[in-house]
Amino acid sequence: MVCEKRNGVDHDFMKDPINYVIEDGWMIAKDTTLGADDGIGVAAMLALLESDLPMGRLECVFTVSEETGMDGAFGMEPGFFTGKTLINLDSEDEGQMFIGCAGGLETSACFDYTREDTAPGYAPVKIEITGAIGGHSGDDIDKGRANTIQVMARFLFSELPYGMRLIMIKGGNKHNAIARECEAIISVRDREATIARFNAFAEDVKKEYSRTDPDIKLKASNFRCTEKPVDSDVADRLIKALFACPHGVESMSHEISGLVETSTNLAAVRMRHPGRIEVLTSQRSAIPSARRMIAAKVEACFLLAGASVQHTAEYPGWAPNIDSPILKLCVESYKKLFGYEPEVKAIHAGLECGLFGEKFGDIDMISFGPTLRGVHAPGEKLELASLDKFVEHLTDVVTSFK
User: Fold this and answer.
1) Does the pLDDT at position 361 exceed 90?
2) What is the rounded distance in angstroms from the CA atom of residue 247 to the CA atom of residue 175?
3) Which of 236, 253, 246, 287 is nearest to 267 (CA)?
4) Which of 36, 80, 81, 90 is closest to 59 using CA atoms?
5) What is the largest distance, in Å, between two alpha-carbon atoms of the chain?
6) How confident is the model at residue 187, as a pLDDT?
7) How far apart are CA 393 and CA 337, in angstroms?
8) Which end of the chain is less enclosed by CB atoms within 10 A, N or C?
C-alpha cells in the first residue's frame, strides 16, 4: 500500500492498525490511506485459496513493492507461474473490465547548494499549503486538482523581485501521488508586506480551486529560525524550475475516448540531506516513445536550471486485446449475474500486467476489482456494495472457467 497520512497524525504504518469507519456504505480511513489498494485483491485471493469452490487449477501471484517500482513483478523469471490466463485484482472501479494500462517512468533532479549569510534586516516567514485532495497520479491526473508544490513555487517566484531568500522547502511524498501539502521557510525584508501579498495570493488560489480542492488552506506566519538561506543562485533556479516543470495531462488517447494517454506528475521536493535538494517526478503513457518524450521534457526543464537528472524504474504498458477469451468470459458472467454489460476500458494507471505480458508474452489477461476512491491519499475508501458484486463476479468466473 501507499502509506500516506495527514499532517500531524501520529501513525506508524509498520506496527499500528489502520483506523477506519463505516459510513454511508463505505469503509473509510479518514487520517491515513486504507490499503484497500491493493489489500482487497490480496484478501480475495486468500479467500479463494482457503475455499472449497469447484475450481480448476489455481495459482495466486503475490508481488512485493508494486507501489514503489514493481520490484516483485520485475524479479519474476520464466516459469515462476505456469498459467496462461491471468486475472489481475488491482483495479478500482466495479463494473469496469480493464484490458490495457499505461507504462511508467520516474525522473528525479538534484540541486547541490551551499548556505549564505542572511542580509541585515531580514526576518523568516513560514508558509504552509495543506488540505489539497491530491490523489493517484494516474487515475486523478486529469481532475485539475491543485499540486501544492507548484502552488508554492508560483508564490515564491512572485516574491523573487522583492529579494526573498529560501531557507527550506518540502512538499509531496510518493512518486505516484499528487502533492497534497507543501511548506517553505523564507527570509524577507518586510514580513508584514510579504504576508499581506501571500494572503491576497491565497484568496486567488482558493477561488481557482474552489471546485477541485474546496478544503485547501494557505497560511503565512512569523517564524523563528537560525538556519541560513540557500545560496540565492541555486534557490532562484530551483524555484523557476519547479514553477515551469510540466505537470498534468500531456495528451489524450485518440483510440479510446476520455482516456489520458500521456501525463507527468511533479511529485515531491525535499531537503533530506545537507547541501542537496531533490525533486521527484513520474511520467506515464501506454506509448513508450511518448512516455520517454515527456520524461525528456521534464529533464530539459531541470537541465536548464542546472540540476543533475536521472531516469529510473521504467516499466512497460499493456496493449489492449479486444478478442481476449478471458474478457469474453468475464463480460458474459457479469451480464448473467447483474443483467447488463460492464464497461471495457484501458486505464492510465500502471498495472503489473505490462510486466507479465513482457515476461510471459502469450498470457491472456484482464483486470477488475471493487470500487475504491481516494487511493494514495488519506481518506481512501472502499464501497462495500461494490465489494459484494466483485466477490460474486470473481467466484462465478473462476468456477466457470474451462
Assistant:
1) no
2) 13
3) 246
4) 81
5) 79
6) 98
7) 7
8) C
Residue 390, all three cell numbers: 466483485
Task: Judge contact between 89 and 38, C-beta under 8 A.
Answer: yes
Average pLDDT, the chain: 95
Architecture of the domain defined by 21-102+318-400 = 3-Layer(aba) Sandwich (3.40)
- What pTM was estimated for this model as a whole? 0.84
Phi-psi region of 225 (alpha: psi -120 to 50; beta: other; left: phi over 0): beta
- Residues of the chain with pLDDT > 90: what percent? 88
Distance CA 196, CA 125 (A): 12
Q: Is 44 helix (H, G, I), strand (E, B) or coil?
A: helix
Confidence of residue 277 (pLDDT cuts 50, 70, 90): very high
Quote the pLDDT of residue 350: 86
Containing 48, the helix (H) or strand (E) segment is helix 36-50
pLDDT confidence band for 148 (50 / 70 / 90): very high
Cβ distance 29 to 357 under 8 Å? no
| Averaged pLDDT, 94-104 | 95
**Residue appearing with cell numbers 500502471:** 350
From 28, 23, 70, 2, select the one nearest 372 (Cα to Cα). Answer: 28
Q: Kindly list the domain boundaries of the chain, sorted by start residue.
A: 21-102+318-400
Alpha-carbon distance of 371 to 82, in angstroms, equals: 30
Cell numbers at 286, concatenated:
501506454
3-state secondary structure 76-142: CCCCCCCCCEEEECCCCCCCEEEEEEEEEEEEEEEEECCECCCCCCCEEEEEEEECCCCEECCCCCC
